[in-house]
Amino acid sequence: MKLGIIDSGVDVGFLREHGIHLAGGARFTLDLGARVLETRSYDREELEAWRAGTSTVDLQDENGHGTAVLSILHDQVRPWPEVELYVARIFDQEVRAHSLCLVEALRWMLDEVGVDLLNLSLGTTYRALEAPMREVLERAVARGAIIACAAGGVPTLPAQLDSVVSVGDPALMEGLGTGVKVDHVVPHRQVKLYMGGRWCGDAPMTTSFACAVAVAGVLRDGCPPEWRRKQR
Question: Start and end of every Peptidase S8/S53 domain (predicted)?
Fold first, then answer.
């Protein structure tokens, strides 16, 4: 199985400490002044050199969010399965990214790499790129990919799209906005995760982390049949 995470990158120290290897990675940035989308992809050999400390790549998680997502997967799926792990970094240190970077990261993950399971602990209210986003997601689902995305307090993309399994948590459901699509609710209010260089056993649950918990369930127990029905 190929597993993908689009987020803020990953902390190389976490990879080393927990014996995790990446099969591939990519960085997407947008230079608004020059109107240029910059993409840099990395193969397994380059990532192993980064992990060994003999090279650098632009995947280092400067915020901690992407590492926290990966840590939830690693903690909740034991033993860690034989998966090919791919990471795309679109966020900066403040967890900001242009929607165009998200669309291009989706294309890379789903069309070029062809991941089977994709974690999207993110969302945007910007709808101008809904059509190309919908196109790439529907194409992936047609070949059997499972795409889980954090739902928002208001309608967000890509969680609102029928091709995506949108995931919520109890706090979201208590104040759910009008028209928000939620396909799956993780009932827990706390989660164990790694952030800031250490493990935290009782971090508050968010929809972003709930999405990772849901993806961990697929890795551990298999895909719920109703998820596939909703994505046809």
Answer: 2-168
